[in-house]
Design goal:
- This protein is mostly helical and about 160 residues long.
- It is about 55% helix and about 0% strand.
Length: about 160
């Protein structure tokens, strides 16, 4: 029996219930939750299903998916996404749709792969990467130092 979802405020449910083996929950559920756990910004908690639904709906310009539907997919109580659901989820996480169903992919996507795919989908990050492409190594190292300093400032601001 499933527990009630937690975090049912405007951000939506936050976690899927662990109710046994990955097979019991289903491959789709297991992989969705695995992808969610890899979201967010360095040093912060993964995004909630509400945040993910909001980002997907904003990107599509349409109310494509709800936080509760995502939560139910991830905890295995629903296993009937439409093609559109699967397409927007795959696009959001930067993965092929087949990742949700093919056993031979067996979580072959590392956390870095997922982070990179999500980051490169952001037009601002893509513009920075393209602008930096071809710069000498010394310049790239200087850019990395500036970015690290910016992250340190963000973390300092968040904790004060």
């Amino acid at each position: 029996m499933a527990r009630p979802a937690t975090g049912n405020d405007e951000t939506g449910p936050t976690t899927a219930e662990e109710d046994g083996s990955d097979r019991a929950r289903g491959l789709l559920a297991t992989r969705l939750e695995s992808l969610r756990m890899r979201t967010g910004v360095k040093g912060r908690k993964p995004l909630t299903w509400g945040q993910i639904a909001k980002e997907i709906n904003s990107a599509t310009g349409d109310e494509v998916i709800s936080p509760s539907f995502l939560y139910n997919l991830a905890n295995g109580t629903k296993d009937n996404p439409t093609r559109r659901h699967l397409a927007v989820l795959a696009a959001y996480f930067g993965i092929p749709v087949s990742y949700f169903f093919e056993d031979d992919l067996s979580d072959s996507l590392s956390a870095t792969d997922v982070e990179l795919a999500k980051a490169i989908n952001d037009p601002r990050v893509r513009a920075l990467a393209l602008a930096a492409a071809g710069l000498p190594n010394q310049s790239l190292d200087a850019l990395r130092t500036v970015i690290d300093a910016m992250w340190a400032q963000v973390h300092t601001t968040q904790t004060s």
